[in-house]
Every structure is written in C-alpha cells, then in structure tokens.
Write the structure tokens for this entry.
Amino acid sequence: MWYRIDAVDRVAELSADWEVYAERNKARGLLPKMVIGRPIWAFLDGAAVNYHYAQIFETVRQTGAPAQFRMRSDGPNRQTLLEISITPEPRQSLKVESRVVRERAVSYSPLWDRSLPRSSELVIACSWCKAVKLDQNWLPVLEASGVRPELRSGCPPEVVHDVCPGCARMLQQERAAAFA
C-alpha cells in the first residue's frame, strides 16, 4: 500500500488497494475522497509524531536518498510490524509505502479497538513501538494493562500519540546518519 504527497505535503495519490484498507478498518475518514488533496498532517496524531515525520520528509528531500524505518500498527487482536519506505520523486514529491513485515494474533486489547467508546481519561502511546507511558515509564501495552486496569476495560482511555525516548533516539540517529 502506498500514498504520494506533493511538495507541500498534500496527499496527491493513493494506491489502488487504499479504499479496501479503509473499508476493512472501518475508517470512513480514510476513504480516497476524504484523503486526496488534504495535508498529510491531518492524518497524523501528535506534535512529536508530526515533528519526526517532517524531519524524515525533509531529510529525504534534501539528500535525495530514500528512508526506511519500522513501526508497529496494532489492532485489538493483531500486532503488525510494518516497514515504511519513503522515496523521493520529481518536483519534491514523496512516495510513502508500507509493507507488512510480520503479523501475529494477540490477546484482545480494548485500547486499540476504535469501535469502543472512550472514557475521559487519556493515555499516551508511542506511534512507533506502541509502548504506553505510565508516570515516567514507557511499557509494552500488555504490561501497562496489568498496572492500569482501565486499559483492559470496555471503555478504555483516549489514546494520545507521542514518540517514546527510545524511538525518538533511533529516528534522530537515522537522520544524522543520512547527512553523514
């Protein structure tokens, strides 16, 4: 699956399988007619997430070299590891492709079930590794669920996306290596 953004980071084109993906995930807001022409930033959640994507986009445009990284995309019953490739194209456009590296069934996690109502509580999750921040510690969601039972409830907290220190460090190191 892929999408292309133009020089000012608007979604310009989507792969043919995009609509199937949106429908399968019950994400009407991701249907092509809702996505094309809009800034990519409308679909990314959290200032730190936007910052890191902006840094990656800038690096690819400045160096002319593609970038690759891995990130998790978890659902309520599935843990998916994706490889994201960002390739420079003419006129400062970028092609962003995702490929499933590994997928496995996991115990149900209400936290990732978008169909559930949300409590007024908030929980911070890393957009890259899906760790959850409790106090000052980042924990895997299963471990965090043992500490905060509301993460397992039928009305889980709202998820706010951020980037954990480990993933932020990895992203900064990769950017520095691109300019070395």
Summary: The chain has a mean pLDDT of 94. Residues 44-179 form one domain. The longest strand covers residues 94-105.
